Amino acid sequence: MSLSEAEKETVIQFDESTNLATVYTASWTVARTLKKLGYQPLRRKDGAWWFKIPVDAMSFQGKKDSQTIC
């Protein structure tokens, strides 16, 4: 299954009731990176992967600043 660049989305979902985030990705690059970091997919279907990762393991970087979610 071949996806366009726009279809290779990644969605991160989390709330304050748990310290885990669900990561859905249709990007092979993101899935490969998460696997290299030691996270195993919970599910894989039709070129998409679902992972659970700790919220404090996520970091967002911008042009001027970076932010770690704790």
Automatic annotation (TrEMBL):
Superkingdom of source: Bacteria
Protein name: Uncharacterized protein
Lineage of source species: Bacteria, Bacillati, Bacillota, Bacilli, Bacillales
